[in-house]
Design brief:
heterodimer, A: 327 residues, Glutathione S-transferase Yfyf (Class Pi), Chain A, domain 2, Rossmann fold, 2 domains, four-stranded parallel β-sheet, 13 helices, 9 strands, 42% helix, globular, B: 196 residues, mainly alpha, Fumarate Reductase Iron-sulfur Protein, Chain B, domain 2, 58% helix
Chain lengths: 327, 196
């Protein structure tokens, strides 16, 4: 199965662990990801707040590039299948594909803009899907179960979906918008204990950390607190924004609420990798802010410490050759 | 354009009709039954000046200034809870984006929500420079301009991101191949701007 692949900006750097673990876990299956050549940012939730035609043209360039490249991709329901691992990219691409088709006037003006770059787009041939959807529905739970060599026995997991993967479902609805279960089932397939997590489809706050810190930290706190109340060892996520917010801001949320919550936030692909027996260093483990070592030691996973970085030479010293201690 | 569209244009649009016309697909705003499912579902509703339900009533009442000045649209986190719960299937999140754009155009956002549009602008400036988002540039430029006093609070996290290999430094950034093409497209797109 060959899918079009739109990594999105986060997977290039901030969510590099998501990328590494994705590539590692799809390897055993006959899944090929064909990256869209020279893709650009999807605009996140920012461009649409400033300029409507700008925002849709930014996404339409990606869709036009995808359509040009799609001839050999998996075709289902008459549409070429492409995958985005980031929930925001998944939403923006699928939404643009839908709204451009539903709003001829918008498609017309977007094509006027695209023409400036010698491009044109006709919507209707693509279906944008999230990576989790591909994993559970195209690879399938049974095939995944067959690859589990080190079940995550005893690890208590809070499956966190966030909002955009299940809502509002522009193109590829594959789970319930309020009480999804596909990630729960996947984690059970890997042998983990899945805890009830009432806030599993609540929002992480998105860009709020940059706009209203107190509002954002409260949203983050609520989620981590909820997972802690159900004695989760790990929160599992499928979106770089959710991972960043719950992981990197967990300490700040603790400060605001006078708590000491420490729940690591990992990508579902990292846990798949561990269950498949893939070494942690190939899964980007160790890049998280809230240390995952104590939780993962419960399942006998040992994450090697990162090798210490070379010290930079002090600015006061000239870069002179130095005698070694021994010499 | 059809003759019907011309006729409609002659009559000045109500504020509600303007909002609908500026929203892609079908906004469905006119059939709001004021049930309040939206506000009840909103994770940041408690911090909003007016709940989404109230905002829609105000839009209908033509309270342009009050609506565009409100922080409601800026506190929308785009989680789409309201949209899937709305019994009338109103495209609430898209309408919130429309209100953001209209507020920017009218210059009607108050100081307490000023950060949101300026964060968006900074984000998009980097997309125009590289074709992709650039977290370090975004965080440092935006915070220096808007929350300079928070910089010491942000710095350890930034350093952590870099040390964990989760953030690029400026000199290692390269734009996409089609950056000029992208900018030509976006320049034209921004000139067109919207649907109205």
């Amino acid at each position: 199965m060959k899918f079009g692949y739109y990594p999105g900006c986060s997977l290039e750097k901030n969510a590099i662990a998501y990328k590494q673990s994705t590539m590692a876990v799809i390897k055993p299956f006959e899944v090929e990801l064909d990256e869209i050549d020279d893709w650009n940012c999807c605009g996140a939730t920012e461009y649409i707040a400033i300029n409507l035609v700008g925002a849709y043209s930014l996404v339409a360039r990606n869709l036009a590039l995808a359509a040009q490249q799609s001839a050999t991709w998996e075709k289902q329901n008459g549409k070429f299948q492409m995958v985005a691992p980031c929930s925001a990219c998944y939403l923006n691409l699928g939404k643009a594909e839908t709204y451009l088709e539903e709003t001829p006037k918008l498609m017309e003006v977007v094509n006027v803009a695209l023409a400036e770059g010698n491009m044109h787009y006709t919507p209707g041939s693509l279906q944008v899907r999230h990576l989790l959807d591909i994993v559970v529905n195209d690879i399938g739970y049974e095939n995944i179960a067959a690859k589990v060599t080190k079940p995550l026995k005893g690890l208590r997991i809070a499956p966190y979906y966030g909002c955009l993967i299940v809502r509002p479902g522009f193109q590829a609805v594959f789970d319930d918008p309020e009480y999804p279960t596909s990630l729960d089932k996947l984690m059970k397939t890997l042998g983990a204990t899945v805890v009830d997590f009432p806030l599993k489809a609540s929002c992480c706050g998105g860009h709020m950390t940059q706009i209203s810190r107190t509002v954002a930290l409260e949203m983050i706190y609520r989620l981590v607190r909820n997972a802690a109340d159900y004695n989760a060892d790990v929160i599992v996520t499928l979106c770089p924004m959710c991972q960043l917010n719950l992981d990197a801001y967990q300490g700040d949320a603790n400060k605001q609420f006078g708590t000491d919550l420490k729940i690591p936030v990992l990508y579902f692909t990292q846990l798949m990798g561990l269950a498949f027996g893939i070494p942690p260093e190939q899964l980007g483990l160790g890049k998280e802010f809230v240390d995952a070592r104590p939780a993962l030691s419960k399942i006998g996973v040992d994450i090697p410490e990162e090798p210490p970085k070379k010290k930079r030479p002090s600015k006061e010293e000239l870069p002179m050759p130095r005698m070694t201690q021994e010499g | 354009m059809t003759a019907t569209a011309d006729t409609v244009q002659k009559k000045p649009l109500t504020f509600e009709e303007e909002v609908i016309a500026a929203t892609p697909s079908e906004a469905r705003l006119k059939i709001c039954i004021q049930c309040g499912s939206c506000g009840g579902s909103c994770p940041s509703g408690a911090d909003m000046d007016h709940s989404p339900r109230t905002i829609f009533a105000m839009v209908k009442a033509g309270m342009r200034d009050e609506v565009l000045k409100s922080n409601t649209q800026w506190y929308c986190v785009s989680c789409y809870y309201c949209m899937v719960r709305c019994p009338q299937e109103i495209h609430i999140t898209d309408i919130m984006y429309t209100l953001k754009r209209m507020a920017i155009q009218a210059g009607k956002y108050d100081a307490h929500v000023r950060d949101a549009p300026e964060f968006s602008e900074t984000f998009i400036d980097y997309v125009k420079k590289y074709g992709r988002s650039f977290e370090l540039g975004l965080a440092s430029r935006y915070h220096l301009a808007h929350h300079p006093l928070d910089m010491p609070k942000m710095a350890p996290m930034g350093l952590g991101m870099w040390r964990k290999g989760r953030m690029d430094l400026a000199f290692s950034r390269k734009p996409i191949k089609g950056i000029d093409q992208l900018n030509k497209i976006l320049a034209k797109a921004e000139e067109i701007g919207g649907l109205t």
